[in-house]
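Margin note: ligand = nicotinamide-adenine-dinucleotide.
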Amino acid sequence: MSGLLEGKRILVTGVITDASIAFHAAKAAQEQGAEVVLTGFGRLSLVERIATRLPKPAPVLELDVSNAEHLETLPERLRQHVSGLDGVLHSIGYAPPSCLGEPFLDAPWEDVATGVEISAYSLKSLSTAVLPLMGEGGSIVGMDFDARVAWPAYNWMGVAKAALESTSRYLARELGPQGIRVNLVSAGPVRTMAAKSIPGFSELEAGWGDRAPLGWDVNDPTPVAKSICAVLSDWLPATTGSMIMVDGGVHSLGI
Ligand SMILES: NC(=O)c1ccc[n+]([C@@H]2O[C@H](COP(=O)([O-])OP(=O)(O)OC[C@H]3O[C@@H](n4cnc5c(N)ncnc54)[C@H](O)[C@@H]3O)[C@@H](O)[C@H]2O)c1
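Resulting structure:
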C-alpha cells in the first residue's frame, strides 16, 4: 500500500530535540513516503544528530527565519537536494521571557516585536522564500495554539499566535490562485522544549486530558504529527485559511 505522502517533497522547519513536534511530523511524513528536508536554527550539529534518529536520512539546512540572507539563499540550497517542494511545515515559535508568564502588562514592545516577528511574520517570510520551488502548488502548514481566547501564562505568545492565525488567512487568500493551500494545525499542549520554557505551562496542560472528549496525552505528539501529514497530503484539497483543531476536542467545550 502506498503512503499518504508518497512522492511528496516536504520541507520541515523547527526540529531542535526528538520531542519537537517537527521531529514527529518529519518521522510520520517519511513513514508515509515523503522525501524530507529539514532546516535548523542555530545549533545545527544538534539538529543533525537528532535527524539521524529519523527512519531515513534527511539533509539539514541552516535557517533563521529572521535572517534575510538565509531566506534569500534558501531556494538554491534546497535545489541541491530536491527539484521542488510539495509541502512546508512552519513549526517555529519564540518570544523573550518577558512575554511569557511574567505580568502581561510588563512586556516591553521590543520583546513583543521579536515574538511577533519570529512566531507570526515568519510564516510570510518562509512562504515567500519557498515560493520559487512550489510552482505546481502545494500545502503550507503552520503550528498554532488556539489564540481566539486568553490563556494563563501564554500572554504575548498568544498575541503572536493571533497574528499567525490572521497571517495564515491572508497568505491563503494571496497564494490560493497558485494552488497553494495555507492552514494551521492548532494543537493541544505537548511537552517540548518550547512548551517547557513557558513558566505556567503546567497550568495550561493541567486537566486537558480529563476535559478532552477524546482524551489527550501531553507526552504523545503522534496525533499532532499525523494531522500535520494529513494537511500536507492531497486529501484536504479544498481547505485553506483554516485552523485544524487537534486538541482532543477541548476547543469545542464551554466548561
Ligand atoms: N508544544 C506545544 O504544546 C504546542 C502547542 C501548540 C502549538 N505549538 C507550536 O508548535 C511549534 C513548534 O514548537 P514545539 O512545541 O515543537 O517546540 P520546539 O522547541 O521543539 O520547537 C520550536 C522551534 O522553533 C525554532 N526557532 C526558534 N526561533 C527560530 C528562528 N529565529 N528561526 C528558525 N527557527 C526558530 C527552534 O529552533 C525550535 O526548533 C511552535 O510554533 C509552537 O508554538 C506547540
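The pocket of nicotinamide-adenine-dinucleotide is lined by residues 14-17, 20-22, 41, 63-66, 91-94, 118, 143-145, 187, 189-190, 192-195 (CB under 6 Å).
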